[in-house]
Structure formats: structure tokens, C-alpha cells
Amino acid sequence: MDETKPRRNWLLVLSLCLNVALIAAIAVVVWRIGHFDIFSGSGGPMAPRSVMAQFPDREPAIEKIIAAHQAKLADLRHTAAMARRDVFRLFASPGYTPQKVGSALDAVATADVAIEREAIDMENESLATLSPAQRQALVERVKARNRSWFFRMLRRQGMR
Q: Which of 13, 83, 97, 146 pairs with 24 at a CA distance of 20 to 30 A?
């Protein structure tokens, strides 16, 4: 009798494992896109919401600071969006001139700087609520955090 050894399908197993890993990576990316944090004071290890997550005792004070800046930030974001819309309208209009679009782009830059200034003011005020010991703990946490792109993709927006 002719006994044949069963052929090992190791390539098939490897392909299956890679497909499962690819599906998991795609699921993580889709989940992260759906849960993007767009609230005022979010993003970055020293952002107000990240500081609140690390120091719950400072939450009431930082919430007041965020609430005080939130309306102005929303207004500034709306102004920046309208400035960008105006740039496109000027660019698409029959009366296009580089000077008109240039001045409209200057308005966009001004609006963006105003948003950034307000966000920095909010961050500065929230960091001012911390005690010296808490500031040192925050510094140590920022120094020790994992900077790998893979783990940044997996973690939530705030510092945990």
C-alpha cells in the first residue's frame, strides 16, 4: 500500500492568523473613528480633561474653567469654519484674484490663532489649579508614558 503523509497546510494557518489580526486592527481603527473626542479641553496629557481624569479632586474647578471657555471656543470654531467657507467661495467665484483669496486666508489664520489662544488660556487656567505635588506627578506621568504609535492608537483620548 502507498501511504502518503498528510500535507501540512502551514501557509493556510498562517494566512488565517494574519487575516484575524487584520480584522482586529480594522475593528480598532473603526471604533476609534467613531469615538473621537471632540469636546473642549480634550486631547493631550496636559489638556484639562486629561488632568481631570488623573486628579479627580480637581474636577469641579476644572469643569468650571472648561464651561467658562466652551461657548467662546464654539463661537471661534464657527468663525474659523465660516472663514474657510469664504476662502472656497472666493476661490470658486468668477471674480477670483490671488489678493482676495490671500486676504481671506489671512482671516482663516487669524481665526485659527484665536482658537489656539483660547485653548491655551483654558489649559493654563486648569493647570494652575494643581498643587505642586500634583504638578510633579503630572510631569512624571508625561515623561513615563508610552510613545509607541500602536499603543497610542489603542488608548483613549484622555490620559489614563
A: 146
For each of the domains in the chain, give its residue range(s) and CATH number, in order of start. 38-146 (1.20.120)
Which tens digits make up the pLDDT trace of 104-114? Answer: 999 999 999 99
Cβ-based neighbour number of residue 93 at 10 Å: 11
The distance between the two most distant Cα atoms of the chain, rounded to a whole number of Å, is: 89
Cα–Cα distance measured from residue 40 to residue 119, given in angstroms and rounded to the nearest whole number: 8
User: What nine digits make up the cell of 20?
Assistant: 484575524
For 114-124, letters b (16+ CB in 10 Å) and e give: bbeebbeebbe
The mean of the pLDDT values for the chain is 85
The Cα–Cα gap between 117 and 131 comes to: 24
In terms of Cβ atoms closer than 10 Å to its own Cβ (0-12, 13-18, 19+), residue 77 is middle
Residue 112: C-alpha distances to residues 68, 106, 116, 160 (Å): 19, 10, 6, 29
